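hey
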């Protein structure tokens, strides 16, 4: 069977029938050897992905595992197609049986209805004849005349009552209309805006620009609309001109992976310039955090490092706390630190996640939101020089009281006090922390993937989706605050996406500019003109119907037994061959190449 002949329930084609996204139903209790092998291969890919995220040189056995990635994906691709064909055959047979059963049922019901109809006619005729024979004609005339008089009186009374009721209802409706007029208008306006956003997305086209410069994973990005700044595992930060997409500066000074970057606003920059550097010029400043246990302050225009602060812990995320005028840093050891913006002195230091790496940090109003590698969310508030914990996620539940699986949280976004997070599953979770309720939003067309990046922007939610089966990523877009799915951006040539930032504009305004970073650094620019350069290809937005459905349950990482895992370890190195197996006498060069995603 050709791949194109498979039913839509078991496949998703990449737009022009190239590539594959297969959704194979393996929910049966008894698993076939092929299904078990698929799970084993996927677990190996998960392990490789974890190895590639390490900020260190890999050991020799780890390098061997990483080099098998392409062979594993090729074997997995063949198994998925075979399973899809088998499932398609089963579905076709079941559909044929259902059609035959439906035909038989229709014939049976039709026959029963015919018999019942004839019997009913006979019973009615018999009843009428019996009644006419039993009653004398004079009696029938008397009863009919009396009934007619009573009926006329009842109709007159009912008519008067209906008039009074209608008048009362009409007066009440007029009163209610005046009260609800503003509310109804607001609802209609919101619905109209949502329709316009969806309509705009369906018609949108983009040009994708590749920005080359970093030689390792891009870990974080930020922008003020004119300038883009990017952090990388290659220990550098770079700034880019968003008019011509050319590089402006390379910021060198960190000795470890740069994990985060924060471009300050003119108001924030003015406060820091005047208080810390006695600078009255209109300079913009930037913050960066690194695994070298420092955060640094840079002057954006000159590329000059203005200050470096040692934190004693690798910095995973940082932010400017506008309301309290403080810097906030978090670490891979679970610590949160607050720093004075005038002197850069430490104001507070505490371990808010016990022994867990803090993977996410967002600030909204006076709340500090954090997430951890153990799947825990926390909300804090700075009160009277004390950090107060307002919320800790424990046994998160859906509205129907089903428990949410606790997985490594990779990224968070916050909008109107709702926490959106991506983890090692196929859904995004939207957490109403004040009510303790979670909503699942399906973020993958596949049944094996992760969400590495989330960005909330005014009326839109942008999320990355990474298909671990084939190593490709795409971007899904939803409206805020209602989280309606509106479209997907997929050029079928992007590896894992670690960060997303809306540089400026929006789809309805026709000026959207979106930056994504990870294995590549790309700019998605909305086309507002029919004049397109010949050397650039146009990428239309897509609508994937599956993502317009409710969230699905994600499979666990290892759903097979310990015996199967031991068997897998015994087969390690023999079932899949890879090119470029490292020589034990020349490890260092291979280690360096394999630490790059």
């Amino acid at each position: 069977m050709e791949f194109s002949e498979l039913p839509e329930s078991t496949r998703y084609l990449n737009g022009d029938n190239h590539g594959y996204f297969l959704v194979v139903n393996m929910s049966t209790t008894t698993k076939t050897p092929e299904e078990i092998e698929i799970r084993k291969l996927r677990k190996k890919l998960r392990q490789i992905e974890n190895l590639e995220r390490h900020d260190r040189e890999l050991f020799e056995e780890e390098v061997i595992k990483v080099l098998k990635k392409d062979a594993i994906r090729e074997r997995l691709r063949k198994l998925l197609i075979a399973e899809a064909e088998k499932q398609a055959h089963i579905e076709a047979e079941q559909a044929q049986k259902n059609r035959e059963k439906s035909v038989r049922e229709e014939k049976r019901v039709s026959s029963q209805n015919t018999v019942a109809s004839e019997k009913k006619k006979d019973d009615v005729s018999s009843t009428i004849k019996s009644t006419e024979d039993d009653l004398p004609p004079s009696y029938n005339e008397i009863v009919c005349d009396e009934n007619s008089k009573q009926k006329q009186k009842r109709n007159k009374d009912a008519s008067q009552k209906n008039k009074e009721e209608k008048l009362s209802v009409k007066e009440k409706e007029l009163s209610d209309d005046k009260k609800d007029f503003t509310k109804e208008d607001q609802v209609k306006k919101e619905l109209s805006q949502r329709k316009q956003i969806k309509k705009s997305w369906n018609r949108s086209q983009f040009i994708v620009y590749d920005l080359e410069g970093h030689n390792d994973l891009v870990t974080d990005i930020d922008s003020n609309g004119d300038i883009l700044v990017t952090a990388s595992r290659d220990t550098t930060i770079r700034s880019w001109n968003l008019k011509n997409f050319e590089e402006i500066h390379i910021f060198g000074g960190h000795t470890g992976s740069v994990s985060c970057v924060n471009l300050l606003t003119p108001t924030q920059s003015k406060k820091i310039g005047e208080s810390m550097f006695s600078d009255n010029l209109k300079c913009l400043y930037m913050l960066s955090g690194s695994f070298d246990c420092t955060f640094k302050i840079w002057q954006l225009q000159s590329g000059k490092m203005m200050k470096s602060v040692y934190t004693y812990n690798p910095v995973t995320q940082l932010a400017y706390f506008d309301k309290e005028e403080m810097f906030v840093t978090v670490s891979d050891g679970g610590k949160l630190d607050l720093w004075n913006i005038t002197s850069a002195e430490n104001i507070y230091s505490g371990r808010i996640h016990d022994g867990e790496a803090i993977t996410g940090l967002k600030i909204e109003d006076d709340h500090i939101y954090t997430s951890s590698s153990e799947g825990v969310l926390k909300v804090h508030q700075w009160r009277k020089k004390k950090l107060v914990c307002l919320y800790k996620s424990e046994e998160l539940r859906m509205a129907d009281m089903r428990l949410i699986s606790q997985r490594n949280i990779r990224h968070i976004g916050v909008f109107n006090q709702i926490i959106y997070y991506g983890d090692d599953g196929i859904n995004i979770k939207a957490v109403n922390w004040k009510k303790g309720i979670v909503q699942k939003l399906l973020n993958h067309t596949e049944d094996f993937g992760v969400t590495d990046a989330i960005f909330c922007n005014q009326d839109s939610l942008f999320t990355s989706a990474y298909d671990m089966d084939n190593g490709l990523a795409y971007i899904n877009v939803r409206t805020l605050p209602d989280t309606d799915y509106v479209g997907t951006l997929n050029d079928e040539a992007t590896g894992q996406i670690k960060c997303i930032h809306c540089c400026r504009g929006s789809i309805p305004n026709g000026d959207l500019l979106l930056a994504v970073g990870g294995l590549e650094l790309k700019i998605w620019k909305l086309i507002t003109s029919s004049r397109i350069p010949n050397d650039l290809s146009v990428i239309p937005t897509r609508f994937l119907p599956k993502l317009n459905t409710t969230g699905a349950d994600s499979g666990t990482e290892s759903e097979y037994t310990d015996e199967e895992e031991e068997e897998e370890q015994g087969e390690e190195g023999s079932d899949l061959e890879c090119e470029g197996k490292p020589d034990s006498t020349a490890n260092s060069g291979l280690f360096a190449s394999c630490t790059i995603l």
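The first strand starts at residue 11 and ends at 14. The chain has a mean pLDDT of 79.
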